[in-house]
Amino acid sequence: MEATAAAQTSASGGSDDIDAQANAFRESFARVKAEIGKVIVGHDDIVEGVVLCLLAGGHALLEGVPGLGKTLLVRTLAQVLDLTFSRIQFTPDLMPADISGTNILVEEEGRRSFQFQPGPIFANIVLADEINRATPKTQSAMLEAMQEHSVTVAGKLHRLHEPFFVLATQNPIEMEGTYPLPEAQLDRFLFKLLVPSPTLGELAAIVDRTTGSQTTPVGKVLGGREILAMRELARAVPIAPHVRDYAASVVLATHPGSEGAPDISRQFVRFGSSPRGAQAVVLAAKIKALLAGRFNVALEDVNAVATAALRHRILLNFEGEAEGVATEDVVAKIIETVGERQRSALRV
User: Which residues touch 132 (CB under 8 Å, ≥6 apart)?
Assistant: First the structure.
């Protein structure tokens, strides 16, 4: 009896501890959003998506026309977090060494030697501004850093600072002088977020905030240790087998040749998502569950993040591009089809 009572007390204490950690997670997330909201008008979904990517340990790609505040959002995020920040302006003449760094010749006490000079990639938050303006050779310099969190120069491996987060921006409409990101690099972004134009009310608020004499200061909310701890908590969120299988089914349905692919995938999709898409969906869904006050992943969490996690991992075929099909429509139809199949299976 005493052993049973002790076990119950321990389990209760563990549950209380988990609840406290989940509440602290939500409060920290809300504080970051609130501080960013002092500067950024609207774009609540974009802000949440960016912070979610950071806490999931992934990277984010923001796509939108110039002047929508993409760069300002990243700068504000860096101010809110007690982390190092660097900005890389991608241009056609930018070289890989300008990003990763290079060995330079130094002379000390009459002796010459090569010494590694770190590039701007060595920061916690890296803004890759207009990433599609650089040549593919320079874009490829980001691949190892984003996937392995390391840089290799002259055969020597250099580890990047943790937490490491790349937030890239690109312009979707300016084709001259741009180089579309290859699928291998797109796949390394956890989310692709589309930044919309502001509404009338939001535009009026932007004008008021940016044309006056006063600026709104933002305070530091989180540091590196807190962010790493929040990442560990997010990964510890359990996911039931049927929810995990649902997420996997959604990703597999993006492949036109898979057994469960809906008609829209078979007709308009050339290639579907890689396994990184499933990883992105599950990790992001775990954070959505925490933000909803649950320490378990639900189907609605998967649905909420699927579009941002998969829209850049689906490659349309010629017919899909000619018909003007959006990858968001493909994901929406897949969610509808896979969800209906699962509901039918549960009824049986």
Answer: 90, 139, 170, 171, 178, 179, 180, 181
pTM score above 0.70: yes
Single-letter code of the amino acid located at 101? G
Indicate the pLDDT class of residue 140, thresholds 50, 70 and 90: confident
Q: Is the pLDDT of residue 246 over 90?
A: yes
The rounded percent of the chain whose pLDDT value lies above 70 is 92
In angstroms, the first-to-last Cα distance of the chain is: 42
Stretch(es) of the chain classified as CATH 1.10.8.80 = 237-348
pLDDT in tens, 282-320: 999 999 999 998 889 999 999 999 999 999 999 999 999
3-state secondary structure of 289: helix
CA distance 344 to 294: 26
Q: What is the pLDDT of residue 260?
A: 82
Evaluated on CA atoms 142, 144, 145, 150, the torsion sign reads: negative
294 CB burial (10 A radius; 0-12, 13-18, 19+): middle
- For the cut 70, the answer to whether the pLDDT of residue 197 exceeds it is yes
For 293, left (φ over 0), alpha (ψ -120 to 50), or beta?
A: left
- Indicate the CATH number of 237-348 among 1.10.8.10, 1.10.8.80, 3.40.50.1000, 3.30.750.24: 1.10.8.80
Judged by DSSP in three states, 191 sits in strand
In this structure, which topology does domain 13-94+121-236 adopt according to CATH?
Answer: Rossmann fold (3.40.50)
| 107: β partners | 112
